[in-house]
């Protein structure tokens, strides 16, 4: 035990000292009694027969006597001796060196070869300057002994004080340490930064990448300074950042004082404000008294009629005012001086405010947080007040906003931090390298491309996902840290605007909305999600769309989100144009900030074709493609209600050879097991489609698509004419786009089409379907497209068409659908229907979508006997010919077995996506069987179903209006 050791050390040492002291006294006594003075002189402890050279008054009124050899002897050098400064000496008359002959005692202040100077405590009146001679004898040092004894006694009873740590280390009670950290949880890069900051003489820069605990480190540095008794002025560019520091320093029990108008401070901070502290100071009541007196005098002045009295009161008021001012100034100074840490914004630290009442050198250190986001000039407001500064921030995030392009380009936007890093590099900088925010997959990109690959993710966040949050189901969206939704080729163009700052992209807004829907339906709280856009116009569009439904959802510009974080971040990059212009996005630091706000999930919606023209953005797209899930926006573009196939036309093709208007729209359905492309010949041009806009595909691309489509179709038709050929194999070398076309053509012609083989060797086999077992196929009434295109239908049924629904059913169904399509103003496509050759070779697809009102019956149908198709109202027998859906495990007729048709679209989609994200390849072809539905997914589907029902209800309510306008 430390105390025991100290105690026993002290008592033992005191005894020993006593013994030593006694021995010394004894020796002196013996010498004085037994040894001749001459012998003592030869031992060096005595000087004989000295004369007083001079006597003067020295420090603290003591007499300084200079003792020298006798001058008349012609010797000016003292015998060799041991006298030195600090020795206690006695001056004796020539009777000897007995106590009786002692003239005075003193301390040697100077010893040279020719003289000894002694400062005497008791002014010796009887010294004779000229004639008398004296002996000088070294005495035992009683003073030293007494002081040591006192120190030991104090050491013994030491409980708290500056030497506590020292005592404990020197008595082996604790290990000596270089620096004792107040926050023991600091990681090694943070410790290094703290030590570095403490050891630097003038400047230390703490570079804190996103989520690396910059504030934690700065707080520790400040507390260490306070522990050393230093006064710190701590500033940041924004009130929020300053308040954050106030809060954390106050929690650590530092005496903080926050300058600034109380109205601008957070409520929790207000008690640390200068006004609040003043109100509780000793001076407060005096000041209040003076104020009261002043008020009284004022009142008196108003009432007083007498002129003389009035003048008298006026004088009184002015005197009181003067008194008040001095009192207040004194109170402010006192409060400021008492604080260990004074905090203000950079500009709040100005000389005309409260700080003017402090001496210029009051502060030892200035700490500036968020230094990379402030103009250097603003940093100089606090910097002029201290001899040392600590600058913290991240110069890889956005620099201060500067309105003047010229000023910015000429260097005004270069922050002090950036300048120092550039000029001095590592000699003044320490970087924090462990980050506590992002899932590793999100972090790696920023680390690699912004922070020299130096960041590591702390174990607590490394793998965290949205699904780990309470109440969040495991669905695909919540299990992936990175999701890229690519709008390339989907025609979701940015709005045309001349102003570079105001770009918008309504198509990306749609997709963001759908993704937010998916996240919230999976149980992610909207307050945990941020939607970030680089452009204010896009922010406005997003707010208009989303804020009513999700009031807690934060939608902000990148710049507005700096310094913040969210569990999930949805980023829309907006730019989508043919020229590949990215403008504003070209600021790497803006993208860095946007991406690094995300803790568990980052979704980026962008046109990869446009944004990858920029090298830095390309690194992000590449990273997400490699380490994350990738979807094409096509997947989102169907307005799919459960079970219905409402394809959105997204791909408009101009075909000059068409007899109709020449426009074709390709509705893509990349969902589920069967990525299909549907082509309709509504011919009405893009204006009747809900997503009009010029195609992003170049005319070349469009023409190529048509040519290929025609080629494949010709090939399949040749196969059909050749009855000997059982199946038609397409080579595995087809790209995914061509595969889509093959599936499409086969589907249109009512043929079986199936992908076979694995991986790269996958190929499509097209074959004739088995002969229709029952129910003659009748030519159903052609559906009139929404645009009302009248066209003669003369083509025969496709051989072995997949329709086995009764003609009556179908007719009823289709007529209904057509009506709906017309009413709703968009097109409903089904997977197949009557094919009809047009010159362009495109075919029309008739609708087989489920009407909204039938939703209830869908649920009823689920429990219906297994003998008929499980699709609502479909009575087709599936006893002989049916298909089992691998997702819902129910039998469907061939007209309804496609997952999207009967409501398994999401599962099929998820399944396909899973494969795409696992294998990184978009296969055309049927999916793998996945019968398992995990309980979380079930709950999720339920929630989704609920919200769909609500949506549909709403739609039904709002529909009539739309009908009128249509
Ligand atoms: N040594 C540490 N151990 C565990 N968690 C830490 C450590 N340092 C920081 N953190 C956590 O990291 C998060 C961010 O820390 P802090 O608030 O200090 O950083 P900041 O300055 O606000 O953010 P940034 O680093 O992005 O500037 C906090 O949740 C904090 O608890
Ligand atoms: Zn199904
Ligand atoms: Zn059916």
Kindly describe this structure.
It comes from Esox lucius (Northern pike). Residues 684-697 have a biased composition (Polar residues). It is an enzyme of class 3 (hydrolase). The chain is an alpha/beta fold and 966 residues long. Among the domains are: 1-29 and 153-255 and 339-432, P-loop containing nucleotide triphosphate hydrolases (Rossmann fold, 3-Layer(aba) Sandwich), CATH 3.40.50.300; 35-140, Elongation Factor Tu (Ef-tu), domain 3 (Beta Barrel), CATH 2.40.30.270; 279-338; 457-639, P-loop containing nucleotide triphosphate hydrolases (Rossmann fold, 3-Layer(aba) Sandwich); 726-766, Ribosomal Protein S8, Chain: A, domain 1, CATH 3.30.1370; 868-904, no CATH class. Helix content is 38%, strand content 15%. The protein has 28 helices and 29 strands. The strands form seven sheets. A seven-stranded parallel sheet has the order 9-10-8-11-12-7-13, with helices on both faces. It has a six-stranded antiparallel barrel with strand order 1-2-5-4-3-6. The chain has a six-stranded parallel sheet with strand order 18-17-19-20-16-21, sandwiched between helices. Helix 6 (214-227) crosses helix 7, helix 9 packs antiparallel against helix 10 (307-338) and helix 22 (699-721) packs across helix 23 (736-748). The longest helix has 33 residues, at 2-34. It is elongated and about 150 Å long. The termini are far apart. Residues 639-697, 772-865, 917-931 and 961-966 have low confidence and may be disordered. The structure holds adenosine-5'-triphosphate and zinc ion (2 copies). Residues 805, 869, 871, 874, 876, 892-893, 895-896 line the site of one zinc ion.
């Amino acid at each position: 035990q430390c105390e025991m050791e100290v105690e026993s050390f002290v008592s033992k040492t005191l005894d020993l000292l006593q013994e030593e002291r006694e021995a010394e006294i004894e020796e002196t006594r013996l010498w004085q009694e037994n040894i001749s003075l001459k012998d003592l002189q030869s031992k060096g402890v005595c000087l004989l027969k000295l004369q007083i050279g001079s006597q003067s008054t020295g420090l603290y009124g003591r007499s300084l006597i200079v003792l020298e050899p006798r001058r008349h002897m012609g010797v000016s050098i003292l015998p060799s001796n041991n006298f030195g400064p600090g020795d206690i000496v006695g001056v004796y008359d020539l009777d000897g060196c007995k106590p009786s002959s002692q003239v005075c005692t003193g301390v040697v202040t100077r010893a040279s070869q020719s003289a000894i100077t002694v400062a005497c405590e008791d002014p010796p009146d009887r010294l004779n300057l000229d004639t008398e001679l004296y002996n000088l004898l070294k005495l035992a040092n009683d003073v030293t002994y007494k002081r040591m004894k006192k120190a030991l006694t104090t050491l013994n009873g030491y409980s708290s004080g500056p030497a506590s740590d020292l005592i404990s280390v020197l008595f082996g009670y604790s290990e000596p340490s270089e620096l004792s950290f107040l926050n023991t949880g600091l990681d090694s890069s943070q410790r290094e930064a703290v030590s570095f900051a403490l050891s630097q003489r003038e400047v230390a820069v703490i570079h804190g990448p996103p989520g690396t605990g910059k504030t934690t480190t700065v707080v520790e540095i400040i507390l260490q300074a306070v522990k050393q008794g230093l006064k710190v002025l701590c500033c940041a560019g924004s009130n929020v950042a300053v308040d954050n520091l106030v809060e954390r320093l106050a929690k650590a029990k530092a005496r903080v004082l926050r300058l600034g108008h109380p109205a601008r401070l957070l409520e929790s901070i207000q008690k640390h404000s200068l006004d609040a502290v003043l109100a509780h100071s000793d001076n407060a009541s005096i000041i209040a008294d003076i104020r009261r007196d002043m008020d009284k005098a004022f009142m008196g002045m108003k009432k007083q009629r007498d002129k003389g009295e009035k003048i008298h009161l006026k004088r009184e008021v002015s005197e009181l005012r003067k008194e008040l001012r001095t009192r207040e100034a004194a109170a402010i100074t006192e409060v400021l001086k008492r604080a260990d840490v004074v905090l203000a914004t950079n500009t709040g630290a100005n000389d005309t405010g409260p700080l003017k009442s402090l001496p210029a050198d009051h502060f030892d250190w200035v700490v500036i947080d968020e230094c990379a986001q402030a103009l250097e000039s603003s940093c100089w407001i606090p910097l002029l007040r201290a001899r040392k500064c600590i600058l913290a921030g991240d110069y890889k995030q956005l620099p201060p906003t500067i309105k003047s392009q010229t000023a910015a380009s000429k260097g005004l936007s270069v922050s002090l931090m950036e300048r120092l890093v550039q000029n001095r590099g590592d000699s003044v900088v320490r970087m924090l390298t462990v980050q506590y925010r992002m899932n590793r997959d999100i972090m790696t990109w920023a680390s690699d491309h912004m922070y020299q690959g130096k960041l590591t993710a702390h174990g607590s966040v490394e793998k965290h996902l949205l699904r780990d949050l309470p109440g969040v189901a495991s669905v695909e969206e919540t299990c992936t840290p990175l999701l890229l939704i690519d709008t390339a080729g989907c025609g979701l163009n940015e709005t045309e605007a001349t102003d570079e700052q105001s770009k918008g992209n309504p198509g990306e807004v749609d997709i963001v909305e759908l993704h937010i829907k998916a996240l919230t339906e999976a149980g992610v709280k909207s307050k945990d999600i941020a939607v970030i856009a680089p452009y204010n116009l896009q922010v406005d569009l997003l707010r208009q769309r989303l804020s009513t439904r999700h009031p807690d959802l934060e939608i902000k510009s990148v710049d507005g989100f700096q310094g913040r974080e969210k569990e999930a971040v949805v980023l829309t990059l907006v730019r989508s144009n043919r020229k590949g212009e990215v403008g504003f996005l070209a600021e790497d630091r803006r993208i860095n900030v946007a991406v690094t706000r995300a803790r568990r999930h980052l979704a980026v919606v962008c046109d990869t074709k446009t944004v990858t023209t920029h090298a830095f953005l390309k690194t992000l797209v590449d990273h997400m493609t490699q380490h994350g899930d990738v979807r094409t926006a096509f997947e989102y573009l169907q307005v799919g209600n459960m079970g219905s196939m409402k394809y959105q036309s997204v791909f408009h093709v101009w075909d000059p050879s068409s007899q109709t208007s020449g426009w074709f729209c390709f509705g893509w359905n990349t969902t589920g097991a069967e990525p299909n492309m549907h082509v309709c010949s509504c011919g009405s041009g893009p204006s009747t489609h809900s997503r009009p806009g010029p195609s992003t595909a170049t005319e070349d691309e469009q023409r190529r698509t048509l040519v290929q489509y025609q080629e494949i179709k010709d090939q399949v038709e040749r196969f059909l004419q050749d009855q000997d050929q059982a199946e038609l194999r397409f080579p595995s070398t087809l790209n995914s786009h061509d595969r889509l076309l093959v599936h499409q053509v086969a589907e249109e012609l009512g043929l079986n089409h199936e992908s076979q083989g694995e991986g790269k060797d996958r190929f499509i086999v097209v074959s004739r379907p088995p002969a229709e077992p029952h129910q003659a196929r009748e030519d159903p009434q052609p559906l009139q497209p929404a645009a009302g295109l009248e066209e003669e239908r003369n083509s025969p049924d496709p051989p072995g068409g997949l329709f086995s629904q009764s003609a009556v059913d179908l007719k009823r169904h289709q007529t209904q659908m057509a009506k709906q399509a017309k009413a709703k103003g968009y097109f409903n496509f089904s997977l197949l229907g009557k094919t009809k050759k047009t010159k362009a070779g495109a075919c029309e697809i008739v609708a087989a979508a489920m009407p909204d009102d039938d939703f209830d019956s869908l649920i009823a149908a689920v429990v219906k006997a297994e003998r008929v198709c499980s699709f609502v109202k479909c009575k087709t027998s599936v006893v002989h010919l049916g298909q089992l859906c691998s997702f819902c495990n129910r039998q469907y007729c061939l007209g309804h077995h496609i997952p999207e048709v009967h409501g398994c679209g999401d599962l099929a989609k998820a399944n396909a996506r899973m494969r795409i994200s696992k294998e990184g390849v978009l296969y055309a072809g049927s999916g793998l069987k996945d019968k398992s539905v995990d309980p979380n997914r079930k709950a999720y589907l339920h929630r989704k179903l609920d919200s769909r029902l609500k949506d549909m209800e709403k739609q039904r309510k709002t529909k009539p209006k739309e009908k009128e306008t249509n």
